[in-house]
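Researcher: Quick test of sequence recovery. Tokens follow.
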């Protein structure tokens, strides 16, 4: 599984660094591990490898994903946009550009009262079950607590028992732990595969109207449902902020490049990967989104991928997936805790206190 391979890769990297035999360059989604290696002096500053001109095409918040003393140490070269709300345009009659979470909630509440289930949520994913819920909580935390609080979370400077954290979980629980809000109710959300549980949006008749997931969902659904076409049978909008003042803050995940050895070849490779030329190629794959603002619009293979890239480009702040910044034990506990919470939301205080104990143990 991907989870096991990620763990293995982290272990190999740490072993090689400890043995004074690091790779020249590594690409990784594990910001937490890279941040620890930066703190130990094992990673080269990005500014020593890539020209200042090349870095001007990246938002400061992207360059800050792995930093030390305001110096960036890694390049986000391939990203995934999270926090997208999907719907089926042939059936959905709700807001397609809601300005606040309250506006969207007003529609979902009214829809539920009419006897129609608004949300598709599914959290089962084998040993990684619960991970889809972490994306919800991260999105709601970011746009309720704001940029500074989220930045502290990714840097292990905020408690799981803080009021900001509890608010995000409760906002998630108002949907996921509510029988009227989720197709099949919380029990189905916990036990249904994370893709299979979203497919009722395209059943006849549809059994739910909305799903929150990352930018890869249309391509994945198209392998399961015939006739999927962005703009006709599937479309999206960015999840609206819980607090209006946090509009434009977005969450991404993806792969980051970091260098451990200095050489002309390493410098040339890092400079190239930071360039618009290389980032255009990333865009053309249709598999990843570049974070480089100089990428040409015609590099994207479809209008929806261009629209997603525009969301990143026009954002007021780009923040990396918080769970991927955590030590493995804490991340796994986060996954499991979301399932416990959806099953019994009255236990939230205990659940968050247990996560805080794990955080402090793994610092």
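Model:
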């Amino acid at each position: 599984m991907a989870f096991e391979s990620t763990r293995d890769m982290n272990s190999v990297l740490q072993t090689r660094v400890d043995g004074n035999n690091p790779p020249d360059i590594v690409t990784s989604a594990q910001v937490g591990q890279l941040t620890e290696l930066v703190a130990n002096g094992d990673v080269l500053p990005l500014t020593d490898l890539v020209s200042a001109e090349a870095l001007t095409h990246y938002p400061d918040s992207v360059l800050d994903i792995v930093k030390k003393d305001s110096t960036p140490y890694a390049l986000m070269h391939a990203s995934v946009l999270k926090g997208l709300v999907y719907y089926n345009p042939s059936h959905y009659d709700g807001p397609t550009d809601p300005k606040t979470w309250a506006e969207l909630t007003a529609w979902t509440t009214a829809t539920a009262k009419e006897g129609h289930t608004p949300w598709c949520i599914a959290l089962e994913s084998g040993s990684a079950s619960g991970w889809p819920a972490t994306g919800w909580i991260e999105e709601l935390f970011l746009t309720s607590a704001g940029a500074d609080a989220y930045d502290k979370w990714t840097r292990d400077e905020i408690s799981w028992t803080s009021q900001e954290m509890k608010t995000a979980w409760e906002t998630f629980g108002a949907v996921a732990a509510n029988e009227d809000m989720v197709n099949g109710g919380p029990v189905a959300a916990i036990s249904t595969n994370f893709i299979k549980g979203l497919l009722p949006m395209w059943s006849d008749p549809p059994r739910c109207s909305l799903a929150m997931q990352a930018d890869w969902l249309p391509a994945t659904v198209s392998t399961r449902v015939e006739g999927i076409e962005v703009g006709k049978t599937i479309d999206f909008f960015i999840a609206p902020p819980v607090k209006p003042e946090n509009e434009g803050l977005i969450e991404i995940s993806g792969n980051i490049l970091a260098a451990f050895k200095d050489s002309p070849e390493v410098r040339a490779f890092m400079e190239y990967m930071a360039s618009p030329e290389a980032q255009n190629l990333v865009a053309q794959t249709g598999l990843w989104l570049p974070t480089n603002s100089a990428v040409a619009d015609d590099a994207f293979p479809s209008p929806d991928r261009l629209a997603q890239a525009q969301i990143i480009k026009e954002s007021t702040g780009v923040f990396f997936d918080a769970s991927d910044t955590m030590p493995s034990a804490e991340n796994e506990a986060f996954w499991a805790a979301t399932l416990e919470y959806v099953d019994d939301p009255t236990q939230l205080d205990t659940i968050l206190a247990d996560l805080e104990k794990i955080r402090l143990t793994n610092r």
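The first strand starts at residue 25 and ends at 28.
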